[in-house]
């Protein structure tokens, strides 16, 4: 059981497995109201959060899920409201001490539907609707979405990827001209540095090294940084920056975002 404090009243949250279908069910008490809902299924994968121990520096992955909670409304339609009210009044006036306590408890447990509706409206007033462009997720069902053009019939490792299909000839030439006389190697990640240092790279290999390095950094950049208007994925080449933003992010309601599939795609291309 988890206890958390909201802006309304102290809330108790309980998670348990239902016997019928084995799904996780979450119940929460908010302002004397009971809310419940089952954990939503994730068909395409699982969601994890990364927790870091500040003392040891170690990290661990924790699987998380989400649940949509709805108020539990119990309305007894079999008992007429008039008879129920009369019964409560009689018990309150002439009943024993135990009966009076039972009636008080029953009154506390009664749910006023209008009050609940008003409460839900107040909670949701500050929530704004954000229409997501889900077309980008439809493309991510195939492996071809994540990896560069690949020759699946190649008999040698060096023939698996055709560098002529990763970028066009004009793009190679323009990007290399933008990289000339710039200290791009100083920003290499340790992985790219271990590959490129001490080797004589061709112009195209140099462009691909900077491309891969920019994608590695892009994949670990925080999402809120990517959504900024002045965000630059590659500071050494405007052309390469435009290519990265065009192929590894999407526009949602006039704002550039990087959904998880596009983040994974950037890492695979790197």
Automatic annotation (TrEMBL):
It is found in: Nucleus, Nucleolus. This is Uncharacterized protein. Residues 99-126 form a coiled coil. GO terms for cellular component: DNA-directed RNA polymerase complex; nucleolus. Belongs to the eukaryotic RPA49/POLR1E RNA polymerase subunit family. It comes from the Eukaryota. GO terms for molecular function: DNA binding. Keywords: Coiled coil, DNA-directed RNA polymerase, Nucleus, Transcription. PANTHER family: DNA-DIRECTED RNA POLYMERASE I SUBUNIT RPA49 (PTHR14440). The lineage of its organism: Eukaryota, Metazoa, Ecdysozoa, Arthropoda, Hexapoda.
């Amino acid at each position: 059981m988890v206890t958390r404090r909201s802006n309304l009243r102290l809330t108790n949250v309980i998670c348990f497995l239902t016997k019928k279908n084995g799904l996780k069910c979450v119940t929460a008490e908010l302002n004397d109201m009971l809310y419940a809902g089952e954990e939503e299924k994730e068909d395409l994968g699982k969601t994890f959060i990364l927790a870091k121990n500040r003392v040891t520096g170690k990290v661990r992955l924790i699987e998380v899920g989400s649940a949509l909670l709805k108020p539990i409304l119990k309305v007894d339609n079999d008992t007429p409201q008039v008879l129920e009210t009369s019964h409560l009044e009689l018990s309150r006036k002439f009943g024993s001490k135990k009966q009076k306590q039972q009636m008080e408890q029953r009154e506390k447990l009664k749910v006023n539907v209008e009050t609940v509706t008003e409460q839900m409206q107040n909670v949701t007033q500050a929530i704004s609707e954000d229409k997501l462009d889900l077309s980008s997720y439809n493309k991510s069902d195939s492996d071809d979405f994540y990896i560069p053009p690949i020759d699946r019939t190649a008999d040698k490792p060096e023939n698996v990827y055709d560098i002529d299909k990763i970028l066009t000839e004009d793009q190679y030439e323009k990007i290399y001209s933008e990289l000339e006389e710039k200290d791009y190697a100083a920003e290499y990640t340790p992985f790219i540095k271990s590959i490129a240092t001490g080797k004589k790279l061709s112009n195209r290999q140099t462009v691909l090294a900077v491309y891969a390095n920019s994608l590695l950094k892009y994949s670990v950049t925080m999402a809120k940084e990517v959504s900024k208007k002045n965000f630059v994925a590659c500071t050494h080449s405007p052309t390469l920056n435009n290519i990265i933003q065009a192929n590894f992010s999407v526009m949602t309601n006039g704002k550039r975002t990087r959904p998880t599939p596009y983040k994974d795609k950037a890492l695979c291309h790197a």
